[in-house]
Design a protein that fits this description.
alpha/beta, Rossmann fold, 5-stranded mixed beta sheet, 20% strand, CGGC_dom, CGGC domain-containing protein
Length: 122
């Protein structure tokens, strides 16, 4: 069973209930279909610092905590893919430590950014 984290947009999280991310996780739909046979456990749900500050600030601290939680796969939320200029940077930084799936729910193809899937760097 894979240990999974979801990383969401700090700005969107101010008004979002995370229903889309959590519904598709619980139903093993959209980006979480890959776990229908093997199963997965959500061990972390976190957000960036938002656009007001430096979204990359404290990222390494969060990565260390995610590693301690045993995260194997990190899903960047659909809101990050659609709104964030740091989408690729987040994906590359997280891929140094985890497999990265570049969305949570909705279409696998993004409207603004192409979907990124990266295996953990060895």
């Amino acid at each position: 069973m894979k240990k999974v984290a979801i990383y969401v947009c700090g700005e969107v999280s101010k008004k979002c209930t995370a229903n889309g991310c959590l519904r598709t996780f619980n139903e093993k739909d959209d980006s979480f279909k890959r776990y229908q046979e093997t199963g997965c456990q959500l061990v972390a749900f976190n957000n960036c610092n938002g656009c007001d500050g430096n979204p990359l600030e404290s990222l390494q601290v969060k990565i260390e905590k995610l590693k301690k939680a045993g995260v194997e796969v990190l899903h960047l939320s659909t809101c990050i893919r659609g709104r964030c200029e740091n989408y690729e940077t987040f994906a590359k930084e997280f891929a140094k430590h985890f497999d990265v799936i570049g969305y949570t729910h909705g279409s696998a193809e993004g409207k603004k950014n192409n979907n990124i899937n990266i295996n953990k760097e060895e």
